[in-house]
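Marked as duplicate of an earlier ticket. Keeping the data here for the record.
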Amino acid sequence: MRSVLLLLSLALNVWMGVALARLENYHYASQLGMCAEYLDPNLAMQIKRDTCLEKKVTRTSALWHIYYALKD
């Protein structure tokens, strides 16, 4: 039973780490002004900006994203 809980906890931590790295990448790309050509209040441009920001790679590793996200 303890092994199952340990594996479940490990899987949950990895899942949360991946989500944290993805969100920090998005946040940092937005902070840097990437995809600024899509800054427009209409919905179509907001969707294009969101898609563009999701595809940007801002740091060399997901571990750096996690480090900077947890640093503050």
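See parent ticket for discussion. The mean pLDDT is 94.
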